[in-house]
Amino acid sequence: xxxxxxxxxxxxxxxxxxxxxxxxxxxxxxxxxxxxxxxxxxxxxxxxxxxxxxxxxxxxxxxxxxxxxxxxxxxxxxxxxxxxxxxxxxxxxxxxxxxxxx
Length: 102
Description:
Low-confidence stretches: none
Mean pLDDT: 78
Order of helices and strands: HHHHHH
Oligomer: single chain
Strand content: under 5%
């Protein structure tokens, strides 16, 4: 999906405000979600912003920092993989395409 520079900058500004837990209107949130459904890059930006909003920016030297920088769910305890209950392919289902192909 190709975006104009204006749209990309608008989306990045909204995502930045989400990461800082600043006010974002419902209309803006819907706007970003619409593009996130069709763009893995925008989806990644949004996941990372939500992680930073919830947990703060994690140290890049930690495993949590790595998880956050990759935009992978996993900082919340309920998202941790449990081999006794979870199927590994289902658990990676929400991951970026490059991880699913691995």
